[in-house]
Design brief:
Layout (H helix, E strand, L loop, with lengths): L14 H10 L4 H17 L3 H15 L1 H4 L5 H17 L8 E4 L7 H7 L5 E5 L2 H13 L8 E4 L13 E6 L8 H14 E13 L5 E3 L3 E4 L1 H10 L3 E4 L11 E6 L3
Parallel strand pairs: 1-2, 1-4, 2-3, 4-5, 5-7
Antiparallel strand pairs: 5-9, 6-7, 8-9
Helix pairs in contact: 3-7
Length: 260
């Protein structure tokens, strides 16, 4: 019997993988077929990837805001948020930092950052108005209105409305895993302007050690060297965060730092 490939060697876009997965998970065929149908509809009706994924989030958020950000249950939503917060606090985040969270979602980790940071020091952006409304509900539920967080809707990652050299920490969890390379390039081309010298940007991504690929237009898999080279092209130093791999999460993490 052929040994199954490790996760980082699988090409989830290949017909062979899809057929094998369907045979092993027949209960998921209907769900995947619905995703394919939605994908075809949104490709036709959406102009560009941001519009496409905003429509995906609208659909998913209407069903369950926590599931829309990748949490199968409320318990998992809490655990993933705690994991992100603990890791960042252990790797340099301080209360006095000014933090930008790209793709803040419904504040799965964001509410913990808001609670920890000094008042007014958290700025969350997202492309989905629906998930930002859910984020407001999280703020109310956690009684964090007095921490004066900023939540802003965006159409792109050019960040033209943000001040220069303002943020010491930037964070993006499960954003580049849903982004084509041109969107990631746009972010890295512009993020340095809003970061202070010596500031860092942590982002997760779906890692492959084989052929880079995507499933529908929702899930993108990149080689580590592709993203580190892209970051270095825009003047950052970049390193793969090995200890993040030890945590129970399916994505990998890179930290890019703006030189002093």
């Amino acid at each position: 019997m052929t040994e199954p490939l490790p996760p980082t060697r699988r090409n989830r876009a290949s017909l062979t993988y899809k057929l094998r997965y369907a045979a092993q998970n027949p209960d998921k065929i209907r769900t995947y077929a619905a995703r394919v149908a939605r994908d075809l509809k949104l490709r036709i009706s959406s102009r560009g990837h941001v519009a496409y994924y905003r429509a995906v989030m609208k659909s998913d958020t209407a069903k369950n805001p926590e599931a829309a950000v990748g949490s199968r249950s409320h318990e998992r939503w809490l655990k993933l948020g705690q994991m992100q917060f603990d890791y960042l606090r252990e790797h340099g985040l301080k209360p006095g930092d000014r933090m930008l969270e790209i793709g803040c979602g419904n504040l799965r980790a964001g509410w913990r950052f808001i609670d920890y940071l000094d008042s007014g020091n958290y700025y969350g952006i997202d492309i989905s108005p629906d998930i930002l409304l859910a984020a407001q509900n999280t703020l109310v539920r956690q009684e964090l209105r007095d921490k004066l967080p900023h939540l802003t809707l965006v159409d792109d990652l050019k960040l033209r409305f943000l001040p220069s050299e303002h943020f010491s920490v930037v964070h993006a969890h499960s954003v580049f895993s849903h982004s084509p390379l041109e969107v990631i390039d746009e972010c890295l081309a512009n993020i340095g302007r809003v970061m202070v010298p010596g500031g860092f940007f942590d982002f997760t991504f779906d890692r492959t050690e084989g052929t880079e690929h995507h499933v529908l237009r929702e899930d993108f898999y990149y080689r580590t060297e592709t993203l580190t080279a892209l970051a270095e092209k825009h003047g950052f130093t970049a390193r793969f965060m090995d200890d993040w791999e030890e945590l129970p999460h399916g994505q990998s993490k890179i930290r890019v730092t703006r030189p002093d």
